[in-house]
Write a structure and sequence with these properties.
This protein has 83 residues and is mainly α. The protein has helices at residues 10-47, 54-82. InterPro entries: ATPase_put.
Length: 83
């Protein structure tokens, strides 16, 4: 016997696409935050040269931490919206 799965309603399909769009948007924003932080660090290192490229290191690390905090806050906000 063949099992038939109930078809998903249009509302369920739209909700699923909305979730995918939300999380892919978060990923793009996370990448943008890191890219901007790294870019600023590189520019500062070119303007104020030093041996260890401390501006690039600091701004990249800071932007990674900022992006992680941003993602956590967005996920918490999304879970509150769904409950």
């Amino acid at each position: 016997m063949e099992k038939k799965h109930p078809k998903k309603t249009i509302k369920e399909q739209k909700e699923r696409l909305n979730i995918y769009a939300r999380f892919s948007g978060i990923a793009i924003q996370m990448a943008a935050i890191i890219a901007i932080g790294t870019f600023v660090g590189v520019k500062l290192d070119k303007k104020y040269p030093n041996k260890s490229n401390l501006f690039t290191l600091g701004f990249t690390l800071g932007s990674v931490i900022t992006s992680i905090v941003y993602v956590i806050r967005r996920i918490i906000a999304a879970s509150k919206d769904n409950s």
